[in-house]
């Protein structure tokens, strides 16, 4: 089983925060399927499908476990902030997260939270150059990029108005 994926990683488009993805997640998986072992490809697909499921902490990737722990810390801090009206934050990124959560505009708030996640991933990149963990890291960054690109103000307003609409019939 190869542990270096020079060609695959070098052929993937560069990802930059707050820009439109140059590759879809579907196309990314298609490229990975060509070069990854069946075990690694299954790991990637399962990790993508199960997301932040705590069962993934048992998976054989120190990077992925670190990501899950970091992301769980962010989620717990968001929950604490919202339920205690900002009284407590557990995250190591307290100042950045507090500033993000105090943002009034929901889009800018989500974008700021995703930037914290992105920065964590960028801080891990130097550890994983051409190995499978770099592919996982790329996927997570691509997922953030795709999520942000999917935000649409007009559709968001429509959903909000439909959710708040009172039907008297």
From TrEMBL:
InterPro entries: DUF2764. It holds the Pfam family DUF2764. It comes from the Bacteria. This is DUF2764 family protein. It comes from Candidatus Omnitrophus magneticus.
């Amino acid at each position: 089983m190869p542990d270096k994926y020079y060609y695959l990683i070098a052929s993937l488009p560069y990802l930059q925060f707050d820009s439109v993805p140059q590759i879809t997640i579907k196309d990314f998986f298609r490229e990975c399927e060509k070069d990854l072992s069946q075990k690694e490809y299954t790991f990637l697909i399962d990790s993508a499908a199960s997301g932040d499921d705590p069962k993934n902490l048992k998976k054989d990737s120190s990077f992925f476990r670190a990501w899950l722990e970091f992301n769980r810390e962010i989620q717990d801090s968001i929950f604490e902030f919202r339920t205690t009206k900002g009284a407590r934050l557990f995250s190591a990124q307290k100042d950045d997260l507090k500033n993000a959560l105090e943002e009034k505009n929901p889009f800018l708030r989500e974008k700021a939270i995703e930037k914290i996640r992105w920065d964590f991933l960028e801080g891990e990149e130097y550890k994983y150059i051409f190995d499978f963990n770099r592919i996982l890291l790329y996927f997570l960054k691509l997922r953030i990029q795709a999520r942000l690109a999917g935000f649409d103000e007009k559709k968001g307003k429509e959903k909000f108005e439909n959710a708040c609409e009172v039907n008297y019939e």
